[in-house]
Amino acid sequence: MPAPIPPSFRQNHALQLMCAWLFGFWLWMAITPLDRMDWLLENLLVIVYSILLGLTYRRFQFSNFSYFLFTIFITLHLIGAHYTYAETPLGFWLKDLLTLSRNHYDRIVHFSYGLLLAYPMREVLLRLSDIRRSWSYFVSINLILAFSSFFELLEMWIAQIVSPGLGDAYLGTQGDIWDAQRDMFLALAGATITMLITWLFINRSKSN
Hints:
Blueprint: H1 13-29, H2 36-55, H3 64-83, H4 89-98, H5 105-128, H6 133-162, H7 167-171, H8 179-207
Helix pairs in contact: 1-3, 2-3, 3-5, 5-6, 5-8, 6-8
């Protein structure tokens, strides 16, 4: 079962703290980013997504656990937007530690997309559709893969239309011709892990 839904934003102090954290962190990451134009492009979806969540809050409120997952994912994305995904220090640290061939911070975020957002996706399905609970796990995984594919296409269109010269920095391919496919696979893997954990937790709770 999804976590209880708080009655209003004014009474939801946990969500207020998460919003304050994201706004403050966004302002911090807006200070002297590595590439201002790339930062703007990376933040387009964040702004649209935040406005959408705000406008629909009265009609549809996620559980605080889902909002917490959103907060973690957006935080990871804002770090990538500040440094550009190919130049994020954490990625270089992992590259040196594990002797990798490239900066894999973008891979971490794509994996986190599936890992962190599959649960909220299932929450939407359970509350807005008549889907069977047994099918909600599979459909949530497929929706994450579908949205991941859509965002890869959207990134391509934005890069070509808004600033073609920033294509490589914005897309973060780092010369990998299979970058988009690997990103989608990682999102799929993350979503599968989350749905497996959710299924195990729910079934264990029922047995107790």
